[in-house]
Specification:
With 116 residues, this protein is mostly helical. The chain contains five helices and no strands. The two termini are 22 Å apart.
């Protein structure tokens, strides 16, 4: 559970690093957007690296990546609706449902686990 929590917080930082300037940074020069994004992304790495190290004790690398992608999409969905004020369309819901099915298949069957 700590892995998912750390990945969630790291994704919040990463989403703001990658997409936050789309709302307020249009007047910034590109170099400023890059530097600010890198500063925010540093915080993301400080959470993502421990999340993956701890998570690898419990999950395979494939499972960690799938968790990461599902968390990324959920965080982005909330970000796009609340921060960017974008509309959530039915086709996005269908796409998220298919990704949920993919995550189910990644975890529903016993894998060999890490081979360390």
């Amino acid at each position: 559970m700590i892995t998912v929590l750390l990945l969630t917080f790291s994704n919040i930082f990463m989403t703001f690093a990658w997409y936050g300037h789309l709302k307020y940074g249009h007047d910034w020069p590109l170099w400023k957007a890059i530097l600010i994004s890198w500063a925010i992304a540093l915080l993301e790495y400080c959470l993502a690296v421990p999340a993956n190290r701890l998570g690898y004790l419990e999950f395979s690398g494939f499972q960690l990546k799938i968790i990461q992608e599902v968390v990324t999409l959920v965080v982005f969905m909330v970000f796009a609706i609340t921060f960017l004020k974008e509309k959530f369309a039915w086709n996005y819901l269908v796409a998220f449902l298919f990704l949920g099915v993919a995550a189910f298949f990644a975890f529903a069957f016993k894998s060999s686990g890490p081979t360390v």
